[in-house]
């Protein structure tokens, strides 16, 4: 039994390998037939140009059709033999069907590649590939050279479907296929695709396709917005066609029918433009088209309709001014030059009134030059006066800045300490003075019965019933010099070296006094008046923001080294005050103070 099962699986695996190998051969056979049909197409096309050898064309058509049918059959067999190649086989079938449909476009082959056969080929394409991505490019084992070629094959089937729909009078399908093709062009080549199909040689084949589609779907389109979009697109097409030919032959001119068509399309767009939400873009497209058609007056008119209104931004207005100036500078027509200058003046007025640029000297210089160019001397003079006013203000600001770099004086206060004087029991004032560029400052802080839970080591103790806070009166005096200064328009940053001295008269207490040498209490419950002394040297980073010419606020952060010690009626060398606040663990001590500060004040110079 085991042997039978083993033999079964061996035979099954062998058959699978044989089927997979056969599927690959099927696709190789398809490639041979596809290439042969392609060569026949070229042969027939050349024969059709001569208008001779109809019998030879017929025979070659029969051979080509057999190659196409055989290739499709090979792909269908490959799908049965290897499911992993289904997408490849389907893609190859669509390519063969497209070949058959293209043969139908050669009139001399219609006796073999009939219209009904071509329609069946196209129908088969849309069954297998109803959208451009239905067959995933990156999952194919046998890919075209690039994605563009892969997508173009789908566009081909859309175009062929459009042609047959027009021939059949199928308005709905023709409109759907035509719009789909145009949308695909926008998607792949962007908003400027009408220009691309003339400037890029590999896209020249699109020229006849786009023209055929637009000429047929414009009459079929009932939606006004779509219709004027297609009409504008056809004007763009003809304009780019004219410009492209003009570059090759300076004597080239459109025929009268083409000129009449442009006028008809233009009138239709202008008449119905209110039906579109993209009127601005439509006017811009018309403007570009008439510039290409060597009709600058119309180009200027449509450009003005697009830009000279409340919806335009600064960039659009400035671009309008610069572009139209270049046209005015190169035209030989005085009438056109005057028209452009009037439009430029209108754009400059809109630019000035809509965007508050009267405080920007760069913008003002642009406006001055523009008004001067447009001949509006009154506005040019007004703008020039504003420029002179700003320059005078800048000179004054620069004079004040230069003076402040050499001299200055300011006073500041700690605002919370000032507002809540009774609560905080302290008063702080600071001052800065600068003479000949050398800046120094001071700070004085007065304490009046202030209770502090954090200084002198109090922050190290967890409350446990034993008092560790300090209540004191006294003062601190600081003096600093500025080491470095980085000043902006309304903010300055400074690095300072600060020295600080503090004297703190702690509240009177009754405590036992211990003799250090004998280690016994020499005085019980004795009155003591401790005094703290503190000396620090810190680097301080200060940031000052000026809320106005007078008022400022300042934050500062400092780090440094210090030393503190304690004095009282009893010498610290001989006696110990038996109280945690004045113990040896706190006094004397080398410290590393870290401070944050906030001040507000007035600048006098």
Succession of helices and strands: HHHHHHHHHHHHHHHHEHHEEEEEEEEEEE
Helices and strands: which structural class? alpha+beta
Q: Quick one: overall form?
A: elongated
Main sheet properties: 8 strands, antiparallel, barrel
Low-confidence stretches: 3-16
Beta strands, count? 12
Q: How do the strands line up in the largest sheet?
A: 1-2-3-4-5-8-9-12
Radius of gyration equals 46 Å
How far do the termini sit from each other? Answer: 109 Å
Average pLDDT for all residues: 89
Task: Note the total helix count.
Answer: 18
Amount of helix: 40-55%
Keywords:
single chain, 55% helix, disordered N terminus, alpha+beta, elongated, 605 residues, 21% strand
Task: Tell me about this structure.
The protein is built from 18 helices and 12 strands. The strands form 2 sheets. Strands 1-2-3-4-5-8-9-12 form an 8-stranded antiparallel β-barrel. Strands 7-6-10 form a 3-stranded antiparallel sheet, with no helix packed on it. Helices cover 55% and strands 21% of the residues. With 605 residues, the protein is α+β, with helices and mostly antiparallel strands. Strand 8 (531-546) and strand 9 (551-567) form a beta hairpin. Mean pLDDT is 89; it is low at 3-16. Helix 12 runs parallel beside helix 14.
């Amino acid at each position: 039994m085991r042997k039978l099962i083993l033999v079964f699986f061996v035979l099954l695996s062998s058959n699978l390998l044989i089927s997979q190998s056969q599927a690959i051969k099927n696709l190789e056979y398809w490639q041979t037939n596809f290439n042969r049909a392609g060569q026949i197409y070229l042969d027939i096309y050349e024969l059709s140009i001569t208008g001779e050898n109809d019998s030879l064309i017929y025979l070659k058509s029969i051979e080509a059709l057999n190659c196409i049918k055989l290739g499709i059959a090979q792909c269908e067999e490959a799908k049965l033999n290897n499911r992993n190649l289904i997408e490849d086989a389907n893609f190859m079938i669509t390519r063969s069907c497209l070949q058959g449909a293209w043969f139908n476009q050669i009139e001399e082959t219609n006796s073999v590649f009939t219209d009904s056969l071509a329609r069946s080929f196209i129908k088969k394409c849309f069954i297998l590939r109803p959208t451009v991505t239905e067959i995933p490019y990156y999952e194919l084992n046998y890919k075209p050279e690039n994605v563009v070629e892969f997508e173009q094959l789908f566009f081909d089937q859309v175009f062929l479907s459009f042609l047959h729909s027009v021939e059949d009078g199928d308005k709905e399908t023709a409109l759907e296929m035509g719009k789909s093709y145009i949308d695909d062009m926008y998607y792949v080549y962007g908003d400027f695709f009408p220009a691309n199909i003339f400037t890029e040689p590999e896209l020249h084949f699109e020229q006849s396709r786009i023209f055929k589609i637009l000429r047929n779907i414009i009459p079929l389109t009932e939606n006004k917005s779509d219709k004027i979009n297609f009409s504008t697109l056809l004007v763009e097409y003809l304009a780019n066609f004219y410009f492209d030919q003009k570059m090759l032959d300076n004597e080239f001119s459109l025929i009268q029918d083409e000129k009449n068509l442009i006028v008809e399309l233009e009138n239709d767009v202008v008449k119905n433009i209110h039906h579109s939400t993209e009127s601005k873009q439509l006017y811009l497209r018309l403007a570009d088209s008439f510039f290409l058609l060597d009709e600058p007056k119309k180009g200027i008119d449509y450009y003005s309709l697009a830009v000279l209104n409340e919806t335009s931004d600064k960039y659009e207005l400035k671009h309008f001014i610069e572009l139209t100036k270049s046209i005015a500078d190169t035209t030989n027509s005085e009438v056109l030059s005057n028209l452009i200058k009037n439009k430029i003046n209108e754009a400059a007025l809109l630019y000035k009134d809509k965007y508050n640029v009267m405080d920007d000297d760069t913008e003002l210089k642009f406006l001055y030059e523009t008004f001067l160019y447009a001949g509006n001397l009154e506005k040019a003079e007004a703008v020039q006066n504003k420029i002179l006013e700003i320059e005078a203000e800048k000179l004054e600001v620069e004079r004040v800045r230069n003076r402040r770099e050499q001299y200055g004086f300011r006073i500041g206060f700690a605002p919370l300490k000032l507002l809540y004087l009774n609560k905080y029991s302290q008063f702080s004032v600071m001052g800065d003075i600068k003479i000949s560029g050398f800046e120094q400052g001071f700070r004085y802080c007065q304490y009046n019965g202030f209770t502090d839970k954090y200084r002198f080591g109090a922050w190290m103790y967890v409350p446990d019933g034993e008092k560790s806070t300090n209540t004191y009166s006294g003062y601190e005096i600081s003096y600093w010099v500025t080491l470095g200064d980085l000043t902006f328009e309304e903010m300055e940053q400074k690095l300072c070296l600060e020295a600080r001295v503090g004297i703190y008269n702690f509240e009177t207490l009754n405590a036992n006094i211990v003799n250090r040498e004998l280690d016994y209490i020499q005085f019980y419950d004795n009155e003591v008046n401790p005094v703290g002394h503190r000396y620090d040297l810190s680097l301080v980073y200060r940031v000052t923001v000026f809320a106005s010419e007078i008022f400022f606020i300042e934050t500062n952060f400092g780090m440094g080294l210090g030393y503190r010690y304690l004095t009282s009626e009893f010498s610290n060398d001989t006696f110990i005050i038996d109280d945690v606040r004045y113990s040896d663990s706190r006094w004397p001590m080398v410290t590393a103070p870290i401070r944050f500060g906030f001040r507000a004040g007035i600048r006098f110079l």
